[in-house]
Write a structure and sequence with these properties.
Elements lengths: L1 H9 L2 H18 L5 H51 L6 H15 L2 E6 L9 E12 L1 H12 L5 E10 L6 E2 L2 E2 L1 E12 L34
Antiparallel strand pairs: 1-2, 2-6, 3-6, 4-5
Length: about 220
């Protein structure tokens, strides 16, 4: 160290100044940083942060959409299963007759049941009909209607009439004998129903337009 100090002491001011300039220039080009590198590093970090936030937001949205879609699918499946419970594929006139007999025996009304021919399929459903006649007092008939409305089946009444018993039934403390007539309609689900558009004629709604017929060739060719 003393050696270097002795050498510096022997240098003239011009040489010392030249060495200082050389060191300053070297520092400027090799080590000096006016802040641009730091600013570039900060900007790059900010860009990475922005990109990460965007990716996170897109991921959260995708997860929310997937969760919502899953819930919608589950809700649709639950609704479909409920429909199938009310419109089972196995529903027929025998099941409907048994249901009616069980209720009439419990209520105490007399019933006459006449199954009707099954209607043609209507899309994915098919109706099963029964002509029904009940004889009993007003309370018994109302009780029957209340109980059949609680059956877990899609059942509706059509052509309802209610009148005094045609045979002139006796009047009791429970009321006069009445006759209730109606058509009871149940619906069953058809799992493999054909698409109605499959047999639709060309040009019908949902079908491509009919192609024009090719005109016959003219005899002798073109003139």
């Amino acid at each position: 160290m003393n050696k270097y100090m002795t050498q510096l002491a022997t240098l003239g001011w011009s040489k010392i100044f030249g060495i200082g300039v050389a060191l300053a220039v070297g520092y400027y080009f090799l080590m000096y940083d006016n802040g641009s590198t730091i600013e570039a590093s900060i900007k790059a970090a900010q860009d990475r942060t922005t990109a990460a936030k965007k990716t996170l937001a897109e991921t959260e949205k995708a997860m929310a959409d997937a969760d919502r879609f899953g819930k919608e699918v589950q809700a649709t499946q639950d609704q479909f299963e409920k429909i199938i419970r009310f419109m089972p594929m196995s529903l027929d006139s025998n099941e409907m007759t048994k249901t009616i007999n069980d209720i009439t025996n419990e209520v105490g009304v007399r019933a006459r049941i006449e199954p009707k021919p099954v209607d043609p399929p209507n899309g994915f459903t098919q109706s099963v009909k029964i002509d029904l006649q009940l004889e009993g007092n007003f309370s018994q008939i109302v009780t029957f209607l209340s109980k059949i409305s609680q059956v877990q089946r899609l059942l509706v009444f059509d052509k309802i009439t209610l009148a005094p018993n045609a045979t002139g039934g006796v009047t009791t403390s429970q009321g006069a004998a009445l006759t209730f007539k109606a058509t009871l309609i149940g619906y069953r689900y058809l799992k493999d129903a054909p698409d109605p558009l499959d047999n639709a004629p060309p040009g019908a709604p949902g079908q491509p337009p009919a192609q024009p017929a090719t005109p016959p060739a003219q005899p002798g060719g073109a003139s």
